[in-house]
Each structure stands twice: as structure tokens, then as C-alpha cells.
């Protein structure tokens, strides 16, 4: 009983802290949909505690708490994008956002130790927590990639952000187990079966592959032997191998069931087979913050079509 009370009090404290934060942010933009949604959920959570709600509902409370975190941090991310990730304040703010998006997973493990985190929060919320952290670092790195002089002075920091972002996005893809086609599951649609077998359960999973591919390309472009040797080599990601593997999956999906659905990569495949990076169309490389904002608001942001051809060509040069 004492443990249950302690856990309930800890979550209650965090809920009221978030309520204060949400109220402060709403003074900036009272009509923001995400802050309004967060405020509505927080009102329900506060009512639960004021009326002495049962601790047996802790998983549901944690799920609601997680949704509030996702809504509030979404508003804060949009503000960072609108400000084009200021050089002086962005590093601290991004770390703060990453910590906020990590806390629901940590709380779930600590407050409900008898259950797996994915059982407490659910697969979709856990996927979203990893996706949001990886996508945030992707957007930040996309902005940094435009600042060539900054990268020259801060290459190690840039590569660290890329590595962390790729790790989060890879974890997102690993939350659900891919469906084995010989598990006695009958599919009437072979295309759906192939998607599930590859671990592609939504358009967000496919977009995650695109993000990983581009981040791996940036890492391959800037990574060299002069990196800080204090980091153990076995802890580093093999960006070229990961990028090649992920982009192969992406190509197969786009040329198969998704052909003609806005994910077409005919030029990419032609260039990949030739391994001729000089003939790739890179006309989309000039798009910047306007595309980033669209990307954070829409899951099916497909603004990197031509640039994606270029990444794959670079990887293709090293594929036998």
C-alpha cells in the first residue's frame, strides 16, 4: 500500500507541474489546438486525484500523462521550427525536449515495475515517443546541415546528434515485431503481408526510413578518422551499412505496393543500379524551414524525393 501511495503521489506531482507549464504556454497562444487538448486531459487527471481515484488505474493515468507530454512538446517543437532553431538556445531546449519525451517511458518503468513499458503505455504511444525524439533531432540536423561554417567548427556535435537521432528512429521501427508469414496468419492481400513482414505498419514507419536514410548520408559525408577517439568504436553506428539496408527496404516498398501512390522512386532505382551519382537530380536541396514546418505537421511529408535519389547513389557506390 505504501508503494502504491508513493507512486500515485509522484505521478500527481508531475501532472500538476505539467498543468502549470501548460497554463503558462497558453498565455502565449490560447487558441493552440494541442495546448487546448493537453489542458483538457490535465483537467480530467486533476479531477481524478481530487476525488481520490483508484491507484489500479495507474496505466491509464500514465497513458493520459504521456499524451499531455506529446501535445505540449509538439507545441514547443513548432516554436523552435518557427524560430529556425536559434544557435544560442537550441542545444539546451532540444535536450530539455528529449528529456521530457523520455520521462513517460521512465515513469512507466518505475511506477509499474511488474509490467513491460510497452504493456503500460501501449505500442502506439511508445512508438510515438521514439518517433518524436528521432524526428526532432532529424529536423535540428537538417537545419544544422545548412550551416556549413557551424559544422566545420562543431562536426563532433553534429555527428553526435545524428547518431542519437538514428538510434531513436531505429528503436521506433523495433517497437513492434514484424509479422512472420508462416505464423499461421492468413492474408488476403499479399502487399499488406509483405509490409508487415518488413516491419512497415504505417506511413510513419516508411517516413522513418527516409529520415534514417538522410541522416546516415549526412553522417557518411562528414564522418572521418579524425573523430574523437575517446568514443569506443563499437559504440558508433555503422551509418553506411544502416543507410544502405534501410533505403533498400524503402525502395522495395515504393516500387512494389506503393507504386503510383506518391512514393515513386523510378529515378532513384535507375541511378542506384548504375551507381552513377553524377547524374542524380538534386533540385530539391534548397528547401529549408518552410518544408520543415510542413514535415512536423504532416506525417506524409514527401519533400525530399529528388534529394533522396542523391543519398542512395552515394550509398550505391559502395555496394557490390
From TrEMBL:
<protein>
    <submittedName>
        <fullName>Rab7a interacting mon1-ccz1 complex subunit 1</fullName>
    </submittedName>
</protein>
<dbReference type="Pfam" id="PF17716">
    <property type="entry name" value="RIMC1"/>
</dbReference>
<dbReference type="GO" id="GO:0000423">
    <property type="term" value="P:mitophagy"/>
</dbReference>
<dbReference type="InterPro" id="IPR037657">
    <property type="entry name" value="RIMC1"/>
</dbReference>
Amino acid at each position: 500500500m505504501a508503494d502504491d501511495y508513493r507512486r500515485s503521489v509522484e505521478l500527481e506531482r508531475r501532472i500538476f507541474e505539467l498543468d502549470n507549464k501548460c497554463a503558462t504556454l497558453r498565455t502565449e497562444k490560447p487558441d493552440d489546438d494541442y495546448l487546448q487538448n493537453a489542458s483538457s486531459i490535465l483537467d480530467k487527471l486533476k479531477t481524478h486525484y481530487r476525488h481520490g481515484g483508484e491507484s489500479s488505474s495507474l496505466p491509464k493515468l500514465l497513458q493520459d500523462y504521456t499524451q499531455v507530454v506529446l501535445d505540449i512538446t509538439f507545441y514547443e517543437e513548432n516554436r523552435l521550427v518557427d524560430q529556425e532553431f536559434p544557435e544560442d538556445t537550441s542545444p539546451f531546449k532540444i535536450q530539455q525536449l528529449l528529456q521530457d519525451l523520455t520521462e513517460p517511458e521512465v515513469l512507466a518503468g518505475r511506477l509499474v515495475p511488474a509490467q513491460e513499458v510497452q504493456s503500460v503505455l501501449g505500442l502506439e504511444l511508445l512508438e510515438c515517443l521514439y518517433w518524436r525524439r528521432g524526428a526532432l533531432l532529424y529536423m535540428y540536423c537538417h537545419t544544422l546541415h545548412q550551416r556549413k561554417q557551424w559544422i566545420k567548427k562543431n562536426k563532433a556535435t553534429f555527428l553526435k546528434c545524428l547518431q542519437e537521432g538514428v538510434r531513436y528512429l531505429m528503436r521506433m521501427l523495433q517497437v513492434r515485431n514484424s509479422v512472420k508469414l508462416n505464423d499461421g496468419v492468413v492474408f488476403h492481400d499479399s502487399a499488406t503481408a509483405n509490409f508487415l513482414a518488413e516491419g512497415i505498419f504505417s506511413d510513419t514507419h516508411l517516413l522513418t526510413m527516409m529520415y534514417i536514410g538522410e541522416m546516415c548520408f549526412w553522417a557518411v559525408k562528414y564522418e572521418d578518422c579524425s573523430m574523437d577517439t575517446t568514443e569506443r568504436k563499437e559504440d558508433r553506428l555503422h551509418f553506411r551499412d544502416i543507410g544502405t539496408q534501410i533505403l533498400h527496404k524503402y525502395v522495395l516498398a515504393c516500387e512494389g505496393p506503393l507504386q503510383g501512390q506518391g512514393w515513386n522512386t523510378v529515378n532513384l532505382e535507375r541511378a542506384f543500379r548504375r551507381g552513377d551519382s553524377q547524374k542524380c537530380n538534386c533540385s530539391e536541396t534548397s528547401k529549408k524551414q518552410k518544408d520543415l514546418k510542413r514535415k512536423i505537421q504532416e506525417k506524409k511529408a514527401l519533400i525530399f524525393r529528388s534529394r533522396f535519389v542523391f543519398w542512395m547513389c552515394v550509398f550505391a557506390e559502395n555496394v557490390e
